[in-house]
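Protocol step 4 of 5: obtain the predicted structure for the target chain.
Materials: sequence only (see below). No template structures provided, no constraints applied. The aim of this step is simply to have a reference model before the mutagenesis design in step 5. Sequence pasted as it appears in the construct record:
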Amino acid sequence: MKIRDFFLFLSLGLFCLILQSTWFFGEMMDPFRLDLLFILIIFLGTLNRWSQGLILSALLGLLVDILSWGVLGLAVILYPLIYWISFFIGARTTVESLVFPVMAALIFQIFYGFLIHFPLAFFKGLEFTQEHSILILEQALITAMLSVPVLYLFRAFWGKKPSMV
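Step 4 output (structure tokens):
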């Protein structure tokens, strides 16, 4: 059962990566774009599957780094860290609503956006402007708003009772 779930979530992660690279790709926000893998990783954190989720988040972070930048970067570190935080909070609470994962998607996306952009700006000699901050916040808001129906579907398929309260 665990191996089947692992490959199912890996396939779902690859599908999310393909979707965010094709249909949800925004050239205006490049390299900032809607991050469906983020929503999947936060959802995995609420399932209380420690080793499976940690391996999947590291593997998906590795794929994001290689496919986005061509080298290992911060996603291979930040995706497992975000999974661990959402697992740590999700395992210690009994919150069944969508509020926690949606707020986590918003806050972690802002955190992730700034941590990814600062090294890019520093090492490539780019300047960080107010427009970049607004784009990071815009990306986080879009990801958080899209996470509501996506998390609802994930919970419906994996047996968690979705609650809107």
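Step 4 remarks: The chain has one domain: 2-13+32-157. The helical segments are 2-21, 36-46, 50-69, 75-91, 99-124, 130-157.
Proceed to step 5.
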